[in-house]
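pls ignore typos typing on phone
copper (II) ion + seq
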Amino acid sequence: MQFKVLAVATSAFALVACGGGEKKAEDTAAVAPAVESPAAAAPAAAAGAVAASPITGQMHSVNMIGDEKGYRFEPATLTVKAGDGVKFVSVKGGPHNVAFDPATAGASAAQITANMPEASGELTGKMLVTDGEAWTMSFGGIAAGTYSVVCTPHQAMNMVMKITVQ
Ligand SMILES: [Cu+2]
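k done
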C-alpha cells in the first residue's frame, strides 16, 4: 500500500514538474547520436551542460521524519549561504527525497539539478529508502532567494520546507 501511494504521488509530481517537455527530450536524445558527429556534438553539449558546483562553505543538516506526529523536515526552514552544503538524513518513515519546486527554482534550476548526486530527475534528489540513509547536496552556484522543497512521496502529507540562500 505504501508503494502504491508513493507511485501515485511521484507520477503526479512528475506531470506537474515536466509538463510536455519530457517527450521532446527523449526524442532529442534518441536522434542526436545518429545525426551529429562527435566533433559537432561536443561543443553543443558543453554549452548546455552545467557542472556540479562543490561545497566550499559550512555544512547544515536536515532530518526527514515520518512518525505518529506526521511527516516533516526538521528544521522546516533553513538559511544557507551559496557554497554551503546540506546533509539530508532520512531518520524514519521513508522513503523520503528532496525535490525543489520548479516554480521557485528559477534561473538556478540547472545548477540545482547538477548539484544533486544521483539525481532521480530534474530538481529531484536520490530517493532515500532506508532509515539512517543520508544524502548531501551543494548550494554552490545557486542564486540568492527562497526555494520551496518537498518530499515527493509525502507531498500530500505536507512534508515541505523552505531553504533560503543568502
Ligand atoms: Cu517523506
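Residues 64, 66, 71, 96, 151, 153-154, 159 surround copper (II) ion (CB under 6 Å). The chain has five helices and eight strands. more later
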